[in-house]
Fold this protein.
Amino acid sequence: MSAINERRERERVHRHRLIVTAARELAEAEGWEAVTTRRLAERVEYSQPVLYSHFDGKDAIVTAVAIDGFGELAAHLRRARLAATQSGQPTGEPGQPAAESDQPAAEPGQAAAEPGQALRAVCRAYLEFATERPALYQAMFVLPTDLKFASAETPPPLRAGFDEFVNCFDPHNERRELFAEVIWSALHGMAVLSDSGRIPPAGQEERLDFLITQIAGTPSGPTTP
Amino acid sequence: MSAINERRERERVHRHRLIVTAARELAEAEGWEAVTTRRLAERVEYSQPVLYSHFDGKDAIVTAVAIDGFGELAAHLRRARLAATQSGQPTGEPGQPAAESDQPAAEPGQAAAEPGQALRAVCRAYLEFATERPALYQAMFVLPTDLKFASAETPPPLRAGFDEFVNCFDPHNERRELFAEVIWSALHGMAVLSDSGRIPPAGQEERLDFLITQIAGTPSGPTTP
DNA sequence: CAGAATGTCTAGCGCTGCTAGGATGTCGTC
DNA sequence: GACGACATCCTAGCAGCGCTAGACATTCTG
């Protein structure tokens, strides 16, 4: 009643992970339309119905991949923001992240070394995330989902990711949630239009630069109350 | 060899339109996942294979719907921009459009009555279009397509719609194409995230206002060279 | 060791996009 | 007016999809 069942439970959890990562890999390699229950089952070396003993259906598998993604995105953005606020370096990839904290949205909005610098770093990190893992990004933000976004049942990692944008603005700024929504929308638009070839992927850096300049540089920029 | 064949050709064209509008109506009523070749065939009162004598496949039907949409969007944006540049009224719907010209991108960038007013009108019209015809909008900008966007084979109505954004900026502004891309991306992000419930649809107006203020109000706004 | 319970698989349902092949009707020509 | 040629359209069916019922095997319980 105990040791054996524990082993079984462990194996079950392991297989659960196996399914999720297999789905993700398959999607990343060949796109979500190639992710069928049959191919997925073959890949994890079980029969089809096993999938349904772990998930309510294919959509639930996609959702599980998406939730993984939310956690990774939040961590990615957080690293970028902290690196930008601590050192003064304006650009790109932090070498080793200083903190990898689990509690999502701590130390809100400590003033950036230079106005808009944190925002720029977070935005860049967001686009980087979207372009480097297009299928994962699609699962999170494009494919139809029944995940609640701006509500009480919002998964914490999702809220945490959003808060990374919010925290780029002055905590006294009452409209910073609104700002974050607009920034996020713009980044999402750029990411998805570029991914589907609707705007030239080449200009992404320039577009980002313009966006940040406009948002950060003026009347109600990140550090203005 | 003539009159009868002409009639046949007319009927064929008519049926072509019938299929496209049926697909669009069905999608608008029940979403694109409800648009199957069988249901579509039933709706136009022909058998399934007839669809394939008009289109290369289901994707081609969606594309046809999208192309219709591009034309309508361009006209919609154009009306909004002209109404805003001629009268000085800042808000909403023009009563009767003055011109419905076919040549897409005429009279570029005549100065707005007030800086950013044309831009605001066009942006508002864009979001209006997207929210009132969500399925059509999806066909145009969300569903996978093999339409060429920023290239030589870009369908003229599509280019025309984009130019409505470009023309909101000063013609001497070398970066106005870039600005238009960013504006468009932001609007697209807002439209699609709101439609899929990922940001609250209620705040759309406020977000738009913030976006316009930031883009139009500063360093490289619409009327600045 | 018998019986219950659990886990997994085979087989199949109704649906999808798409197509081959035969039936039907219309055409130009004798 | 009859006839072969042609175009048009439909019935029937294929392979693949998400998903599930029921048989089978294995393992645990008394």
Observations:
- Chain B has nine helices and no strands.
- The CA atoms of residues 120 and 209 of chain B lie 8 Å apart.
- The two ends of chain B are 61 Å apart (CA to CA).
